[in-house]
Amino acid sequence: MSSELLAPLDLAFWHLESAGHPMHLGALAFFAPACTPAPAPEARPGDRVLGLLADRAAAIPRLRMRVRDVLLPVGGAAWMVAKDFDVRRHVHHIRLPGGDFTTEATAIAGELMERPLERGLPPWEMWLLTGADEGEGGAGPFAVLVKLHHALADGMRAVAIGAGIFDEIADARRVGVRRARPVPPRSWLPGPGKVAGFARNRIEELGRAVDIGASVVRASRFDPRGMPALSAGSSGTRRLVTAVLDLEDVQRVRKVAGGTANDVLLATVAGAMRRWMGDRSERLPVADPRALVPVSRRRPGSPSGSGNKFSAYLVQLPVSDPDPRSRLDAVRIAMDRNKAAGPSRGAGALAVLADQLPPLAHRFGAPLAQGAARILFDVLVTSVPLPRSALSLGGCPLREVYPMAPLARGQSLAIAMSTYGGQVHVGLVADGKAVPDLDRLAHGLKEELAELLDLSLAR
C-alpha cells in the first residue's frame, strides 16, 4: 500500500482538529507485574517492554502511514508511506516517581491526551508508564497509553490496529501471514451499467443527505439551557478519571428490565449525572442533556477496511426524572426508536452526512462545523468492543483497559466504555477546568448501577 485517499469522514476529522481540540482516540491499558525475566541481568523490564512495543508497532503497516495533501481531488488528502519512518519518534517511556501507580498513571495519561499528535508524522503515539519499583528488579505493574488520530480509525478499527501489540495477536499474525494475491488490471473506464448504477446511487445518497441535513436543523438547539458544566468554555486541558462496573450486575438489570446492556449503561450515565448535579447543588436543566451514541456501520464478517465507518444516535438522557426504573425505561424506548429508524437517518447520522460531502467542503467548512457539536448534543457516550479472549503483553496479563474519546469544540465531557474480563471499564475524559470534580461523576456511576440492581432484585 503506497497511497490511499482519505475518505470524506476521515478528512473531516483531520480538518476538525485544532490545538485546543485534538482529534485523537486513546486507550489506557494496565498490565500485571512482569512475568518473565529481562533478557540480561542489567536490563530493566521496562526497557524490554518498550522494545517489544516498538517492534510490534513498527510491524503494523497502517502505523507507517502519514497524511499528505493531493492535487486531485481538490481539497483532498491521502495516506502515504512515511519513507523516513522511525518508530522511536512514536514510542516513549515515562517512569513515574512513586506512590499509587494507578492514580499516577491515570493522571499523566490525562495530561498526555491534551497534546495534539504531530501532523507531519504518522498520527499515533504509544507511551509506556512504569512505576518507581520498575528499576529495582521490575516487580511492579505497568501501563500503556495508545493515541490514534480519529482520521486513522474509528473505535472498532482502532482496536483492530492497537491489538497488534498484544502477544496473542502478534503471534497469530506471524503464523498466519499470507501473501496477497495480485489483482488483475482493470480498465478505469466504467461500463454503461456501472455508469447508470453510479448515477442512481448518487441520487439516493443526495436524498439521504437532504433528509439528514433537515433532521440536523430540526434537532439543533440554539438555546440549550442544559447543564453548565457540559457547556463551559474550553481551557484546552484534559483530565481522565476511570470507573469499573461489574458486567454481571449490568446483565442482571438487563434481564429484569429488558432491552440491552448498553441501555442499562446509558441509564446508569443519566442517573450518575443526576447525582453529580445534586452534589454540585445545581438546578435540574430545563432541557435534559443529549447524548451522541456512535453506532458502527461495519458489517459483521466483512473486511474491516480503514478509516471511519460509523453513524450515531441522539438520545435524551432523562436526568430530570427522579425514578431510576423510569429513567431506564425512557432510555430503552428512545434507543428502540433510534434502532427502528436505523443508523443512516435522523440528526444523529451527521457522520453519514459528512461522508457525502466533497473534500473541498471539509477543508473550508471545518471552522463552521467545529461549533455544530454544542447545538446538537451535550455529551458523547460510546462503547468500544474488545476481544473476548484474555490478552497479554510480554507475558504480562492485561488487567484493565480504559478507552478515551476526544472532546469536540463546545464539549466538556466524553464517556467511553469497554468490556473486558467480566468488567465494564469506563474512561471519562473532561476539560480539566470545566469539570474539576470528575471523580464524583465516576463514583456516581457505581452508585447508580448498585441502585438499579437493588431495584431489579426487589421486583
TrEMBL record:
PANTHER family: O-ACYLTRANSFERASE (WSD1-LIKE) FAMILY PROTEIN, WAX ESTER SYNTHASE_DIACYLGLYCEROL ACYLTRANSFERASE 4-RELATED. One of its GO terms (molecular function) is diacylglycerol O-acyltransferase activity. Its EC number is 2.3.1.20. GO terms for biological process: biological process involved in interaction with host; glycerol metabolic process; response to hypoxia; response to nitric oxide; triglyceride biosynthetic process. Residues 6-264 form the O-acyltransferase WSD1-like N-terminal domain. It comes from the Bacteria. Keywords: Acyltransferase, Glycerol metabolism, Lipid biosynthesis, Lipid metabolism, Transferase. One of its GO terms (cellular component) is plasma membrane. The keyword Cell membrane does not apply. InterPro entries: Acyl_transf_WS/DGAT (IPR014292), O-acyltransferase_WSD1-like (IPR045034), O-acyltransferase_WSD1_C (IPR009721), O-acyltransferase_WSD1_N (IPR004255). It catalyses: an acyl-CoA + a 1,2-diacyl-sn-glycerol = a triacyl-sn-glycerol + CoA. This is Diacylglycerol O-acyltransferase. It is an enzyme of class 2 (transferase). Transmembrane segments: none annotated.
